[in-house]
Amino acid sequence: MLFGASVFVLFRIASDVDLAEVSVAFRAETARQLGLALLLTVLSYLLLTAYDAVALRQLGVKVAYRTTAFASFASFAVSFNLGFPVLTGGTVRYWIYSSSGLRPGKVASLTVVAGLTFWLGMGTVLAASLLTRPEAVAELVYVNAGLLRLIGAAAFVLLAIYLAWVSLARRVVRIHGWRLELPGLSLTVCQILIGAADICASAGVLFVLLPEGHAIGYEAFLAVYVVATMLGIASHAPGGLGVFEATILIALSTPSRESVLGALLLFRLCY
Known about the structure:
This protein is mainly alpha-helical and 271 residues long. Helix content is 77%, strand content 3%. It has 12 helices and 2 strands. It has helices at residues 2-14, 19-27, 31-59, 65-82, 85-97, 104-132, 134-141, 145-168, 185-209, 218-235, 243-251, 257-270, and strands at 172-175, 178-181. It has a two-stranded antiparallel sheet with strand order 1-2. Strand 1 (172-175) and strand 2 (178-181) form a beta hairpin. Helix 3 packs across helix 4 and helix 3 crosses helix 6 (104-132). The radius of gyration is 19 Å and the shape is globular. The model has no long low-confidence stretch (mean pLDDT 85).
């Protein structure tokens, strides 16, 4: 349903887009913009390798960093582009980590802990954005800014409860004989910091590519980016294709759609 709605919106938007202007906007990016975008892309993927590093530490497994970095980079690159991250990312991780002696159960646990890092970071950034810049999301989802600020506060309360819960005792998840011990307080804090920094870096890639005159600050853009990313993930479209772009194009109405579309195309190429 999300993908279908996004295709419809993109079709309506594309009917008014001048492809020649998109080409001009695409070529108008400066060397500084491209350099910053590539630098932030590298930073984001370096932070992604820490997802697996934290998960391996939680599992008490020692693997050479070059293997961890390769497995993390490859699994996230594949899952970002194909969707269904548990299936696609888990498969790539097993293919790489099995050579280091990790059995399927360990790889499944690693994938879940790495995914938890992503969602803890995403939730933290979204909560902070809703508290500080709810107006950007309010215009996008047609919800009162005050209500969004309350949702952001509630998200922080839930995060605090989770932190307290994992700090008081060892927390274990069991599903049909599969057992996963959740990270404690110190590793959970690391997960939040790593995940949030990664989200901020990846959002920065698109932000620096936006044309002049977009009239949106980074904090407000961050809120829009997180919502677009979450909708893309929920749609299970490959790479959130269509859903992500439609959300960004609707939210950023100030510059011409051609210039924003040019930035989106460059973002896809970089990231």
